[in-house]
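Q: How would the structure tokens look for this protein?
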Amino acid sequence: MENRLSQDLEHVLQHTEDLWEDMRGESIFITGGTGFVGSWLLESLLWANRRMALGVRCAVLTRDPAAFTARLPHLAFHEAVTLVAGDVRTFRFPPGSFPFVIHGAVDAREKLNRENPSAMLETIVDGTRRTLSFAETAGTQRLLLIGSGAVYGKQPPELRHVPETYPGGPDSADPLSAYAEGKRLAELLCSLHSARVGSDCLLARCFAFVGPYLPLDAHFAIGNFIGDCLDGRTVEIRGDGTPQRSYLYAADLAIWLWTILMRGQSRRPYNVGSEEAHSIADLAYIVRETLGVRQPVEIAGRPRLGVLPERYVPDTSRAGLELGLEQWIPLRESIRRTAQWHMAEVAA
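A: Here is the predicted structure in token form.
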């Protein structure tokens, strides 16, 4: 069956080809391998595996193997993939040696963070502890923690791009900080583990992304806008449209994460994202124009006079200077490819 992501996966391989030899014949364990980021890691890994005859084996932790198999059978049934059923906090360790681990499992639903922040925090912390225990028994040499830019707390609006050295953090007295504080603690747990056992701990602080597999009906503004345009609905902005965001395409994201895993410096965080900022209101119009539709854009709120817009935009100069990473796919092309993939999925 033709892979509708072949153009993107070739793009990933082009920029990661020199990395894969270090993984030849090895095994990798991935938590969170069935979500947006995990699906891209699996797609790109299996593409490189076939094109370069690497012989890599991949064990993927999932809470619901049946649901994952129904959604992505070409990944679930792949001969190089083994699904491990379990909760990230309590899963049974698969046997064998796993020199590489990617820990990305977390329930990042905004609703859970709002309605049950204790469960959010416990899942992140206990899941990280369990994964680190597994890594120690599995002889893991390099572990990549897929973290979040949320660890910085609210970015000061006058700070155009937040660097890894920014000393801020979430408001620890605010229950809504559970996700961000959990991600901060996960980084610390991984770093302590690395220092104790002598393995490499790679830290990726992820911002905002767009691409195939991104839900069009969740809490991702760009996904919602694309969904509105494809379905002929009014493009709705619930806030005032002023917050500034930036978006990296999923194929570029995969390149960044594989590069950080294989070439990053241990216990040195790397921001992952785009530096090209747009307001949420401008983004809605960019999506509409890119997709060539005429639905109206409705903004529920009004900007507050004299208040600088909220920002969530990374400084990625460290990843660029140290690892040669950049944004290769422009925003409008990212939107177009995402929409085309979703339309093909509906038509299939």
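Residues 93 and 134 are 6 Å apart (CA to CA).

The chain has a mean pLDDT of 95.

Upvote if useful.
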